[in-house]
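User: I'm curious whether this sequence folds into something compact or stays loose and floppy. Could you predict its structure so I can see for myself?
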Amino acid sequence: MRQRFLAPAVVAASLLLTIPASAAEPAPGAPGVGDPYYPDYGNGGYDVSHYDLRLKYQPEDDRLEGTATLLATTTQELSRFNLDFALDVSDVRVNGRKASFATSGAHELEITPDRPLKKGQRITVVVRYSGTPSEVEVNGFTSWHRTPDGGVAANEPEAAWWWFPSNDHPSDKATYDVSVAVPDGTQAISNGVLTSERAQAGWTRFNWRSDQPQASYLATLAVGKFDITKDETSDGLPVLNAYSKDLGENDRGARASIERTAEVTEWLSSVFGPYPFNAIGGYVPNTDTGYALETQTRPFYSQRSFASGSNMSLVVHEMAHQWYGDSVSVHGWKDIWLNEGFATYASWLWSEEQGEGTAQEISDWTYDSYPADDEFWTVRPADPGAENQFHDAVYDRGAMALHALRAEIGDDDFFAILKGWQDERRGGDARVDEFVAYAEQVSGKSLDALFDTWLREPTRPEAPAGAESGAAKRVPAAKAERPKSWEDLQATKHGREHEAHGDAHGSGHGH
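Assistant: Here's the prediction. I'll summarize afterward.
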């Protein structure tokens, strides 16, 4: 701190004045947002409002070159700040001026501007980079999937590190412009609306725009040779689906499912309220993965999910996430029930709608599928721990919790909550406890005991009661009947397995 020497008279006069406390010295932004599951994910000191990504990708050797421009606002005085990124960086500028940078740990890019940044200052950060994403591993895994004709970025809870620098945590959402140049005859698929497609000198540039807040792990990129179908919903939303040209026997099941996305979205809008985004669709690349992911507006599906034919339950699950998980995201990764419990219950409601098994029947059958001494019941969906973030209990017990809520408060309040929560929280994030408080507010009932029983206690609850209008209370000793939709629901469960990252976190990812 610079000292200032004053004349005696000035010093004396100054004693008559109130002297304000000196401003704090600029400090480094935290290298994480403080998420207890993943302490080094995200960063402190700023909030990103927009990502502009201009990329060039060569499928032949998996070479990616990019310039990322981030628009952000500081939340403290900063001497330096971090981005999450794992590729090689050649140049960084902050507000047009060269900044120094260094790497720290597996995915931290430390940026030091040539002058400190003030709190509340709008900043522009430009990062130039390159690399071979499939050769980069962090903690023993990669979220970049090499395909015979290109590559795909899709994973949870992290995928951005392999293709753009970010503040990689759902609590900092932003809008996106993604522009990708690929060799002629190859396509680049991303989120949102395809605004233009331009060919020049052997390359074609695809420009995508997502105009609603989007978490970084929900941003996706797929490059390869696709058969693309385009249409429009009755409300005028653009529909774009993409299928790898070498899916083989899985192509038919994929198309029979994903081409019904508009129909599913229309039905889900009747359950959750208006669709929150500007486009819909899905894509199936030729990866060797076995999971699906709710990448915003355009979910990622593994071809194996359609090996036995159509898989409508999976499409319902991923599209339900557009409301529960995408529009309203988790505040922290412990809140994952707000994503997975609701998407799972949506597939139960779809079964009910299709006359293939009521939510009550599915809840009963699911309950009976897990004996009292099964470790399934020891996982707490409201805070499962990083090692169990994608455990079956988060999905199945999480859905049973919603069915128990429906039985307790009745259909009118239950479905009002599903819609009202989305309307109130659209574009933001939330905690489990906030949902509980909202449900209590709408229903006028104290629900802590119910949610403790189904989400927080490491024991098997009593058998759930009936929820449908006029349904009798279930007799706990009665054996549930197998719902007609059970095989489809199991196919959805297989579609939420995740091999690549499962070993890193001790469980298969479910999406």
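Summary: Residues 433 and 456 are 11 Å apart (CA to CA). The first helix runs from residue 8 to 14.
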